[in-house]
C-alpha cells in the first residue's frame, strides 16, 4: 500500500501538490516487477480535487518504465494516456524510492 507525497520535484522540500495513493504487488517470479494501481490525487492549485489513475506493470530496475493512464476524475474525467517512470533514488533496505513520473494525458 502507498500514500506518498506528490511533489513538483525530486527533493522532499519540493512543493507538495498531491498524493500518490494505491497498491502494488509482486508480478514476476524472474525479476522485480510490480503490478501497480495508483492514483495521483491533486490537492493544490488548478487541479485541486482531481485525480489521474494509472494501472500497469512496473519493472522497477528498468531505466524508464511506461504504464497506462486508464482514467481520472474532476478535470481529468475520461483521461487516457501514459506515464513514464524514472527512479531517482532507491534504498533496497528500506524500500524507499524517489520516482519521477512524466504524464502524457488527454482528457475531456
TrEMBL record:
<comment type="function">
    <text>Dirigent proteins impart stereoselectivity on the phenoxy radical-coupling reaction, yielding optically active lignans from two molecules of coniferyl alcohol in the biosynthesis of lignans, flavonolignans, and alkaloids and thus plays a central role in plant secondary metabolism.</text>
</comment>
<dbReference type="GO" id="GO:0048046">
    <property type="term" value="C:apoplast"/>
</dbReference>
<dbReference type="InterPro" id="IPR044859">
    <property type="entry name" value="Allene_oxi_cyc_Dirigent"/>
</dbReference>
<keyword id="KW-0964">Secreted</keyword>
<dbReference type="InterPro" id="IPR004265">
    <property type="entry name" value="Dirigent"/>
</dbReference>
<protein>
    <recommendedName>
        <fullName>Dirigent protein</fullName>
    </recommendedName>
</protein>
<keyword id="KW-0052">Apoplast</keyword>
<dbReference type="Pfam" id="PF03018">
    <property type="entry name" value="Dirigent"/>
</dbReference>
<comment type="subunit">
    <text>Homodimer.</text>
</comment>
<dbReference type="GO" id="GO:0009699">
    <property type="term" value="P:phenylpropanoid biosynthetic process"/>
</dbReference>
<comment type="similarity">
    <text>Belongs to the plant dirigent protein family.</text>
</comment>
Amino acid at each position: 500500500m502507498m500514500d506518498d507525497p506528490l511533489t513538483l520535484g525530486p527533493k522532499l522540500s519540493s512543493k507538495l501538490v498531491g498524493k500518490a495513493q494505491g497498491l502494488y504487488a509482486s508480478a514476476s517470479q524472474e525479476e522485480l516487477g510490480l503490478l501497480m494501481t495508483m492514483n495521483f490525487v491533486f490537492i493544490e492549485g488548478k487541479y485541486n480535487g482531481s485525480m489521474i489513475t494509472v494501472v500497469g506493470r512496473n519493472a522497477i530496475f528498468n531505466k524508464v518504465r511506461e504504464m497506462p493512464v486508464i482514467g481520472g476524475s474532476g478535470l481529468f474525467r475520461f483521461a487516457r494516456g501514459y506515464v513514464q517512470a524514472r527512479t531517482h533514488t532507491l534504498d533496497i533496505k528500506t524500500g524507499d524510492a524517489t520516482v519521477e513520473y512524466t504524464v502524457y494525458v488527454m482528457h475531456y
